[in-house]
Amino acid sequence: MTRHSSLRISVLPGDGIGTEVSAAALEVLRALESRVGGFALAFEEHPLGAACFQRTGSALPEATLRACERADAMLFGAGGLPNVRHADGTEIAPQLDLRLHFELYAGVRPVRALQGLPSPLSSPRAAEIDLVLVREQTEGLFFARGNADVRGDSEVRDTMRITRAGSTRVADFALRLGERRRQRGRPGRVTCVDKANVFTSMAFFRRIFEERARAFPQLATDCAYVDAAALNLVIKPWTFDVMVTENMFGDILSDLAAGLVGGMGMAPSGDIGERHALFQPAHGSAPDIAGQGKANPTAMLLSAAMMLDWLGAQHADAKLAEAGGLLERAVDAAFAAGTLRPIEFGGQSGTADITRAVIAQIGAPAMA
Ligand code: ATP
Fold it and tell me: How far, in Å, CA of 234 to CA of 252, rounded?
């Protein structure tokens, strides 16, 4: 008898295009459930974000948090709107609170060129871009959030915090990921990105990475200063495999890297901890295009594929892993013909067109 995984997914659509790309993901996940079989996903939708804050006074209601604690995984759309802010001027960002609450220390940002889409880079080697940026997410410069040392109206200090424990776990995560990718035929190279030439905290981050890397002699490991890494990401991004970096550098470099494959609508992410994980497109709520059916759902669909893959590993369930792989291939195949062109790329394909094309590639349910 085959085991049947029944999993509870907290769906957190949030604000702006978050609601549109979340709806697309649920449609695609339902199609996969019946196509692959052997697992069941119970979707439970919960409010959070800027509109929720305006309505209830809380950007992350207690009931939403408790439901997320009970869930097997979280699927997040986007949180925050530029005109809804805390009193100190910072934006509503419930995803940052979720990262801290669940200690989602590894921000996993895969960046892969899809065939059939134009590249912003002129080199034909741009088609080879296939890298993963791992961003530390519980400390670094983001530690300063809510902890600023404000000295009257003349000075503000934000502190970067780097700990041995935080750096060790994220370095180990990136090295394990490098090893998994090596086994799947990727180069197996892990690059630590820092600013060790200027900051003692960053020299400490690098030292811990180098210590941990000794346990992975089969991997090629190196270190790069963040400024050089930014340059090389633009001029030869195909040379990177796995990169690991501090929170703020990761925030900036992951948007830069998303731009290399066409834009934010192509960039999925997973925020992974020891027991919990949240999957979301790397983009925000994009209020300029919200409610018009223009959002590219690809980043969200690839995030949903990452969720299935992670759930498959957590539950040792091959059907979930198979569904994750099928979704990724369906996205690739939908674009490969070259006729689907997201509005973000100057084309005409809106959220519904892209969702339909991916579902068509997933195909009919397997015969019982
Ligand atoms: P945040 O600060 O929450 O990351 P942001 O305001 O910096 O968000 P995004 O919302 O990520 O920026 O998006 C920046 C711009 O990129 C948007 O205004 C929109 O034009 C475009 N964009 C982002 N995501 C998508 C998408 N999925 N499809 C199409 N265009 C998008």
Answer: 13
197-220 pLDDT tens trace? 999 999 999 999 999 999 999 999
The response to whether residue 303 sits with its C-beta less than 6 Å from ligand 1 reads no
Say if residues 334 and 355 touch (Cβ distance below 8 Å). no
Structure tokens at 195: 């600013």
Q: Pairing mode, if any, of strands 242-245 and 130-136?
A: parallel
Judged against a pLDDT cut of 50, whether residue 23 lies above it is answered with yes
DSSP H stretches of helix in 121-266 = 164-183, 200-213, 226-235, 247-260
222 CB near ligand 1 (under 6 Å): no
Helices 17-36, 351-362: crossing angle, 10 deg rounding: 10
- Residue 355's pLDDT is 98
Q: Whose CA is nearest to atom 5 of ligand 1?
A: 284
Question: Could you tell me how far CA 219 lies from the centroid of its own chain?
Answer: 24
Check: CB of residue 32 under 8 Å from CB of residue 364. no
Report d(CA 255, CA 280) in Å as an integer: 14
* pLDDT at site 328: 97
Query: Of 1-10, 143-152, 342-351, where does the model show the most confidence?
Result: 342-351
pLDDT category, 366, cuts 50, 70, 90? low
Q: Kindly report, residue by residue over 76-117, the tens digit of the pLDDT.
A: 999 999 999 988 788 899 999 999 999 999 999 999 999 999
Do residues 70 and 275 touch, judged by C-beta distance below 8 A? no
What is the pLDDT averaged over residues 140-168? 95
Structural domains of the chain, with CATH: 1-105+267-368 (3.40.718.10), 120-260 (3.40.718.10)
For ligand 1, pick from 20, 283, 294 the residue to mutate: most ligand atoms within 8 Å of CB.
283
Pairing type for strands 277-281 and 268-272 reads antiparallel
